Amino acid sequence: MSLVLFRMLVPVIIVVKLLEMAGAVGLLGRCLAPLMGLVGLPGTMGLVWAAAMITSLYGGIAVFLAMAPSAGLTCAQVTVLCTMMLVAHSMPVELGVARQAGARVRFMAPWRILGALVVGAILNAVYSSGGLLQHPAVILWRTATQHPGLGPWALGQLRNLLMIFAAITLLMGLLRVLDAIGATRLLNGLLRPLLLSMGIGASASTITIMGMVLGLSYGGGLIIDGARSGTITARDVFFSLCLMGLAHSIVEDSLLMLSLGASLTGVLVARLAFAWMAVWLLVKLLRRMPEASFRRRFCRLQPPGAPSPGLSRPRGSSPPRRPRP
């Protein structure tokens, strides 16, 4: 499971570092600056969101901490920015996980970016019209922006990969224990009404729990393995990935954003409510789409047991008999 994930992660990490060194973060930040006005943020905050999308949440936080003291942001503005960062961040890595699990990047990328802009615009409208959270943001911790060389960077990435391997190993053992004591069935039962209300089958509950609680990076191996197991339909895998894309790592990442001065009403409550509504609408829109068209447009993986191209036989025909010895 770790090898499947690492084959995707390692090339992406290297490419992201090269893009960062080439100035792609600054270029994307300048492109995003005009959009920041739509969500009530200064144009300079586009650089923060760009850093979060290309690198990680921590990359965006480092840029934010360097720019926030002179920006004079209100709690409402920080909440809008942090919620957008939570919806769309670490895009190269997390889109790679979604791709390996079977979803098409050409849909998942705009789904998350547009989702971040929409939820940001909604929050800005609510906070502005109601005069809410207009006091100055209070940042609970600060750190100096670091620019390590390639050696320290490589060691840091190696430590991250080892942590991911350890997390997957522990999680696999935990899942075995939960299965043995019946806790998995209990969790599936508790999550089933929520998934069914959105139109997602209960068979996707385990990978959905992993993604929403652990995040797509640490839970990526389990998500990919569950999606390829053949026990979950292609539609349920796809809609589950759409839900996880908008709302994942809901505990750790939410606490991280609270330390930057954001409000829980945005980074947790609004994010979960928006994710539920967006996926519910998506399920409704795609409900009547024929299965073949759905797989062709939104899914990468063939259904388990499907014949390989060129090996299919006419419908109703029997497989060739093997000659008797």
Which features would summarize this protein structure in a list?
325 residues; disordered C terminus; 70% helix; single chain; mainly alpha
Would you kindly provide a written description of the structure presented here, covering whatever features stand out?
There is one protein chain. The chain has one domain (2-136, 153-290). Helix content is 70%, strand content 0%. It has 15 helices and no strands. It is an all-alpha fold. The longest helix has 32 residues, at 150-181.
Break the fold down into its secondary structure elements and pairings.
Blueprint lengths: L1 H20 L2 H13 L8 H10 L2 H15 L3 H13 L3 H11 L3 H26 L19 H32 L1 H16 L6 H10 L5 H9 L5 H13 L5 H7 L5 H23 L4 H8 L27
Secondary structure class reads mainly alpha
The count of DSSP E runs of length 2 or more, i.e. the number of strands, is 0
Biggest sheet details: none
Domains counted in the coordinates: how many?
1
Poorly predicted tracts of residues: 303-325
Distance between the termini: 41 Å
Name the overall outline: globular
Q: Please, what is the average pLDDT? A: 81
Determine the number of helices (DSSP H or I, runs of at least 4 residues): 15
Structure in a nutshell:
With 325 residues, the protein is mainly alpha-helical. It has 15 helices and no strands.
